[in-house]
Amino acid sequence: MKLSLALLASAFAATSAFSPAVTKVSISRSSTSLNASRNRDKVASRSKWAESRGYGAAAVAEAESYATGLMTNDEGLEYVRLANEAGDTSDIYLYGGVVTSYKVGGQEYIAVRPDAKMDGSKPISGGLSHCWPQFGPGEIQQHGFARNVNWTVKSMTDTTVELEMAPSDYTKEMWDKEFLCTFTVALEDDKLSTKMFVENKGEESFDFQAALHSYFTVSALDNFSISGSFAGKEFLNKMVGEGEMQTEDREEITISEEYDRVYMGVNDPVLKDTGIGKSLTVMNTAGYEDTVLWNPYGNEGMGYNNFVCVESVKFDPVTLEGGNSWTGDMALKAGDL
């Protein structure tokens, strides 16, 4: 079956306008819908081709996961699918610039809540969701605006996509700053890499916070733990009163109650799930200095038992002078326990 799937995927690739060769493609905002429509036609053509040759539905569906490029979901939202030669995939939505999927060997590591709206009516509840230029409540709307505006595809290949967010009338009404944000996602052989690049295009400085409000899959909370440099670190426990600073005495975190904690100076979490025998290392190599743990324990509607938010955060505001830039680098690396 593996050989058949490989041959089928190769045949699909040969009929696709998205060549396996890594060629950089620039895409304007006005062309995204046309490209998405063309990709739907190609996927439909591939399915018809495979079925006419006697391949089963499961084989066809699995082979179609190798398809890359700009697509549209059932609710009309556009997203980019990346795929590498090993068959790993990642989906990135233009609405919110949010990564909603990362599959390695068929195992999904990024969660989207069951109550998430995938039609653009509200920010997507799940994925690697941007909190920018504000984290949490503050002078503008909760978590800023990056998660509920459409990003533009600047360039893409089969394994990379570069998205861009610039000021609009909507953003200027609440935050009138001259910024340019570029978010790059790269599906590498052994990891998924992301880069948030913030530029101050004006002459005056501005302050911002940045975070990836990352949702990760969990087989069950009873099977799940998070290791890292937590022991001895102070954290803000938002579940106590109006927020209380506490000190963590555990080296490995387990969750058996509602969590909303900001761990200052911790940026090396490793997620461990004994239910599937897998680990996921969150590698924050630039910009993100803190980790937030969040879980709405007991909330069945949100699917609390099957995800944990382990967020990469720059909690203390960054002051960015005119003409300067800031980079937040975060990568995910899957492994075995």
Written overview of the protein:
This protein has 337 residues and is mainly β. The protein contains four helices and 21 strands. It has helices spanning 2-14, 32-52, 57-64, 169-174, and strands spanning 69-72, 78-83, 89-93, 98-104, 107-108, 128-131, 152-156, 160-165, 179-187, 192-200, 206-217, 224-227, 234-237, 244-247, 252-253, 259-263, 270-273, 278-286, 290-295, 307-320, 325-336. The strands form three sheets. Strands 7-8-9-10-21-18-17-12-15 form a nine-stranded antiparallel beta sheet, with no helix packed on it. Strands 6-11-20-19-16-13-14 form a seven-stranded antiparallel beta sheet, with no helix packed on it. A hairpin with a 4-residue loop joins β17 (270-273) and β18. α1 packs across α3 and α2 (32-52) runs antiparallel to α3. It starts with a helix and ends with a strand.
Descriptors:
337 residues; mainly beta; 9-stranded antiparallel β-sheet; 7-stranded antiparallel β-sheet; 14% helix
Can you describe this structure in just a few lines?
The protein contains 4 helices and 21 strands. By secondary structure, the protein is mainly beta.
Q: What is the rounded distance between the termini?
A: 27 Å
The helix content, as a percent range, equals 10-25%
The percentage of residues in β strands lies in 35-45%
Mean pLDDT, as a whole number?
Answer: 87
Q: In which order are the strands of the major sheet placed?
A: 7-8-9-10-21-18-17-12-15
N to C succession of SSEs: HHHEEEEEEEEHEEEEEEEEEEEEE
Number of helices: 4
Largest sheet report: 9 strands, antiparallel
Number of strands: 21
Taking all Cα atoms into account, the compactness measure Rg is 20 Å
Oligomer: single chain
SSE class: mainly beta
Global outline? globular
Low-confidence stretches: 1-26, 28-34
